[in-house]
Amino acid sequence: MHMLTWLIIKRLPLMLALGIAAAAPAHPLDLFTVSGECQVTGRGLIHVFLVDERSFSVAMSGIQAVTSKLDASGLKTRRVAFAFTVPQGTYGIRCFLDVNGNSGLDRGLFGPMEPWGMSWRVRRPAGFPRFADISFAVAGDVMCPLMIVE
C-alpha cells in the first residue's frame, strides 16, 4: 500500500471528527429551569441553595440561592417554591430553616439543630451526606420531588 494512502486511512477517523466538529454551527448556551418545593413547618427564613459538586463542600451555601421569610403563622406546614436557571450539568438542592435569624445552620454534637433538607436521590443516609446522595443531571427542565425540611 502506498504510504500516503496508509496515512490517510489511519488518520481518517481523526480527520472526520475534526471536520465534523469544525462544521458544527455554534449555538448559544442552553439554559434550563430547576424548580420544586420545600415542605416546612415553623417560622424564620427558609434558605434554598442550588449546588454543584464544587460548592457542595462549603456548608449551607451554593451557586444560587432563594430565601423566603415565613411569618408568625409559622406553626402551619406549608410549601415554599423555588426555581433556578442553569446550564446543562449535575446539581443538587439543599435547604434549611433559620429559626433564630443568625443566617447559619446551627449545629450540635449530633448534627444540625435547625430543620434542613436536601434533594435526596433515594433516602436520607445515615451520617454525613455526599454530593452523590443529592445530585441529579440537568439536560432539560427539571421538577424536583417535594423536599421535606425537618
Overview of this structure, please?
By secondary structure, the chain is an alpha+beta fold. It has one domain. Helices cover 17% and strands 41% of the residues. The chain contains two helices and eleven strands; from the N terminus they run H-E-E-E-E-E-E-E-E-H-E-E-E. The chain is globular and about 40 Å long. The chain starts with a helix and ends with a strand. The N terminus is likely disordered.
Instruction: Quickly give the structural class.
Output: alpha+beta
How many helical elements?
2
Q: Main β-sheet: number of strands, strand sense, barrel status?
A: 5 strands, antiparallel
Average pLDDT level: 82
Q: Helical proportion?
A: 10-25%
Secondary structure tally: strands:
11
Terminal-residue CA separation: 72 Å
- Gross morphology is globular
